[in-house]
Predict the structure.
Amino acid sequence: MFGQTVALNGVVSAGASVTLLPRFDPVKALEILRRDKVTMFVGVPSMYVALLHTVNQIGPEAVEGIDIRAAMSGGSPMPVEVLERFEKVFDTTIHEGYGLSETSPVVSLNQPDGIRKPGSIGTPVEGAELDIFDGQDQPVGDGEVGELVVRGKYVMKGYWRNPEATEAAIRDGWFHTGDMARRDEDGVYYIVDRKKDMILRGGYNVYPREVEEVLYQFPGVVEAAVLGVPHEHHGEEVGAVVVFDPKAIGDRSIDDVTKELDAFVQERVAKYKYPRHYNVLDELPKGPTGKILKRELTLNA
């Protein structure tokens, strides 16, 4: 829905042209960005990661002749470290947005003529109303974490032939997204994490995205995913699956680099939040749209 509405319908309605890739390939994407003189790039965060990694492998010449004037990211949260690196390497600005297939899909955006805060999903677009509810469907205050809810002309009427799911998702006119979020004093929204991805460790809530943001700050981490690991005493333990850039590792062993990463994270997050288990892979599993598939990742305590 993101590609259909933003990349295709948006371009057609503006009378512009669009180049589509049957399947995302960073080397091919760089060629097309140069060949077709593309001025706007639209993709999910893992595509930005892949482009940065490819440029790092090829060198600065990989971006010669490319003039991306603006970029849009959606589909999943964009790590701030990735956003800032991409903007520097490609000399552009990324506008991160948010939405779901059930909301047609865009409901908020770091809008070009409005407040823009890296790490946020911006402010509601025209026709959409956002709020944050607690477990009793009551609004929470600015700065508090709750479930993001949406209402407005973009929200679906219901799930096809599934009234039970519709009733569970849409209550009192509000669509419950299943995403945990907060709103700051400027009315800007931030996704904390998926409600179902939250890790409950010894009675404390751990939101994977917060830990992933720190993992991406470590030099040499290309991709990262944090997930819960069943634990006899704590209920769940925090685990991380990472992909390292071989060039950044150099002659060091994977074990040594992982220990350095562990120390790096421990210095930057609370004691109950840092991963106790690490797996290192060559690549994280992704779906057809490029999203990281956490459900295919496993870690053993």
Q: What stands out?
A: Helices lie at 2-13, 26-35, 45-58, 80-90, 163-169, 208-217, 246-249, 254-266.
